[in-house]
Design goal:
2 domains; 5-stranded mixed β-sheet; 13 strands; mitochondrion inner membrane; membrane; respiratory chain
Length: about 260
């Protein structure tokens, strides 16, 4: 989580964010070298009164200052293309989560793990859904929610996002995630958390008066804990009394 006087990115929670941080440091080192060189040349020209005629209208100099930037751009493009490929790479997901944006809260539709569903009192439940609304009384301020999205650790998960009203943006900096939630269109992104813990994000697209009060709270847990939490959420949200509960496996499953 971001804190005061923090000069760098948040600690990465995914391989994609780690690659983004490394590319940022690599690009910054090249830019610092360019700034130092240009500053040295600028001061040298200002304080040096001698004039070199070979530097004026020189074909060799013009070739150098045209070719060198090309090589610098190539040095930046190659790792940049690698990171873009990693971010857009389509993986086979183990779980599909639906994330619905509203003014001004998020709704999550969370599947059960390992392709099964519950049969309770002759009714079949393939997933459970809930709303996540900001809580003022909990810390960190303006980031905590009454219910958090739970995802499993070291598991390929796919987020399917859309909006019911205006354009929103689902942003989770520590995982390198940011995608728009658009009305009438479904966007997707993939995540594979590399460590467990509690992570926070916010809507990154101005979506109305309460845009600043639309946080994202995400918790990464191990697979067994994820299985237990999703089952408990389902049972808590069933208003009727249940007497017969069965866990049934599926041969094929999609959300």
């Amino acid at each position: 989580m971001t804190s005061w006087m923090m000069m760098s990115f948040q600690d990465s929670c995914s391989f994609t964010m780690m690659e983004l941080s490394l590319f940022h440091d690599y690009m910054l080192s090249i830019l610092m070298g360019i700034v130092v060189m240009i500053t040295y040349i600028l001061f040298y020209i200002i304080f040096n009164k001698n004039f070199y005629k070979n530097l004026s209208e020189s074909t060799k100099i013009e070739i150098i200052w045209s070719v060198v930037p090309v090589f610098i751009l190539i040095m930046l493009v190659m790792p940049s293309m690698k990171v873009l490929y990693l971010m857009e790479d389509i993986k086979t997901p183990s779980l599909n989560f639906k994330i619905v944006a509203h003014q001004w809260y998020w709704s999550y539709i969370v599947p059960f793990f390992k392709s099964y569903f519950y049969k309770i009192n002759s009714k079949e439940y393939f997933f459970h859904e809930f709303d996540s609304i900001m809580e003022n009384e909990k810390m960190p301020r303006l980031l905590n929610c009454d219910k958090s999205l739970i995802i499993p650790y070291k598991t390929n998960s796919r987020f399917l996002l859309f909006s019911t009203d205006v354009i929103h943006s689902f942003s989770m900096p520590s995982m390198g995630l940011k995608v728009d939630a658009l009305p009438g269109r479904i966007n997707q992104l993939f995540v594979n958390p590399s460590r467990m813990g509690m992570f926070f994000g916010q809507c990154s697209e101005i979506c109305g008066a309460n845009h600043s009060f639309m946080p994202i709270s995400m918790k990464v847990v191990d697979m067994k804990t994820y299985d237990n939490i999703t089952k408990n959420f389902l049972l808590e949200n069933i208003s009727e009394n249940f007497t017969n509960i069965k866990k049934i496996m599926l041969l094929s499953y999609s959300l």
